[in-house]
């Protein structure tokens, strides 16, 4: 695929990239070509910031492959985590009262709903929650058990597989208390972050801290939870495997993750500097 490069006056100051479906596919390792492109950015003094829906506990494989990464925006913007220091830099948590309201309002409208909760110390799921990739999650029997945890994301399932339809169904129920998104069109999960928190919002704050202007940011993504970030960035790039709604708002479309789309695009941009 031939993707259009940024305009000649674009000054690259930071690269932000989603992980799943963008840097890697289906829990596979990041390709050598992509790792080389990341290091090429870093060697040029350009920060490379992963911006992902993954929880902290799923960042270990990334750290193993690229241990010199610094800060990662994870949980759809709810947390900034320092991979090198293995510590939380900042977090936006959901008040326990709000979590109870979310569970109550969704359950009242959809009794078949089940929930999972990501916290700063691990994952918790209700006993009937089903996911394609259960990973080290603690089972809880009552939402009251969450009172002693810092909840940063709630995941909701009602037993269907169409994430877009579920998002459209549940989004209006929780619009006043949290931000709804999804990162897989076929897993039937809606992800709820604290109100106003998106990948873009947290990335913006990180860029301000690093002294990087919005116009200098290049961002890569493939799913609806990347749309705000790609729209906010000075140059948003959709993957070839991205959903149509993501490609529509992007400034450019690169190759698919299977064809090292991020590496190819970054190398072309760096070659043109």
Layout of helices and strands:
Layout: E1 14-17, H1 32-43, E2 48-50, H2 60-65, E3 71-74, E4 79-82, E5 87-91, H3 96-109, E6 114-119, E7 122-126, E8 137-140, E9 151-157, H4 163-174, E10 178-181, E11 190-194, H5 199-210, E12 217-221, H6 227-232, E13 235-238, H7 244-249, E14 252-253, H8 261-271
Parallel strand pairs: 1-2, 1-12, 7-8, 12-13, 13-14
Antiparallel strand pairs: 3-4, 4-5, 6-7, 6-9, 9-11, 10-11
Helix pairs in contact: 1-8
Question: What would the keywords be for this entry?
Answer:
single chain, 273 residues, alpha/beta, Rossmann fold, Hypothetical Protein, Haloacid Dehalogenase-like Hydrolase, Chain: A, domain 2, 2 domains, 5-stranded parallel β-sheet, 8 helices, 23% strand
What does this structure look like?
The protein is α/β, with parallel strands linked by helices. The protein has two domains: 14-92 and 198-271, 3-Layer(aba) Sandwich (Rossmann fold), CATH 3.40.50.1000; 96-194, Hypothetical Protein, Haloacid Dehalogenase-like Hydrolase, Chain: A, domain 2 (2-Layer Sandwich). Helix content is 29%, strand content 23%. It contains eight helices and 14 strands. It has helices spanning 32-43, 60-65, 96-109, 163-174, 199-210, 227-232, 244-249, 261-271, and strands at residues 14-17, 48-50, 71-74, 79-82, 87-91, 114-119, 122-126, 137-140, 151-157, 178-181, 190-194, 217-221, 235-238, 252-253. The longest helix has 14 residues, at 96-109.
């Amino acid at each position: 695929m031939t993707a259009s490069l940024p305009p000649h006056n674009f000054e690259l100051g930071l690269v932000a990239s989603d992980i799943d479906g963008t840097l890697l596919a289906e829990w596979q390792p990041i390709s050598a070509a992509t790792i080389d492109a990341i290091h090429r950015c870093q060697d040029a003094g350009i920060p490379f910031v992963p911006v992902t829906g993954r929880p902290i506990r799923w960042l270990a494989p990334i750290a193993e492959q690229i241990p010199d990464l610094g800060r990662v925006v994870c949980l759809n913007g709810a947390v900034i985590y320092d991979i090198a220091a293995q510590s939380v830099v900042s977090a936006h948590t959901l008040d326990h009262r709000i979590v109870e309201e979310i569970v109550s309002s969704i359950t009242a409208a959809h009794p078949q709903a089940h929930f999972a909760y990501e916290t700063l110390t691990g994952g918790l799921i209700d006993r009937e929650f089903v996911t394609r990739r259960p990973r080290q999650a603690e089972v809880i029997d009552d939402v009251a058990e969450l009172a002693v945890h810092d909840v940063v994301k709630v995941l909701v399932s009602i037993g269907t597989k169409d994430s877009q339809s579920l998002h459209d169904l549940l989004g209006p129920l929780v619009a006043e208390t949290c931000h709804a998104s999804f990162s897989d069109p076929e897993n039937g999960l809606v992800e709820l972050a604290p109100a106003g928190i998106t990948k873009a919002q947290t990335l913006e704050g990180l860029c301000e801290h690093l002294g990087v202007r919005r116009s200098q940011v290049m961002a890569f993504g493939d799913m609806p939870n990347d749309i705000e970030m790609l729209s906010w960035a000075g140059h948003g790039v959709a993957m070839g495997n991205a959903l149509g709604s993501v490609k529509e708002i992007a400034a450019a479309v690169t190759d698919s993750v299977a064809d090292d789309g991020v590496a190819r695009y970054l190398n072309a941009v760096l070659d043109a500097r």
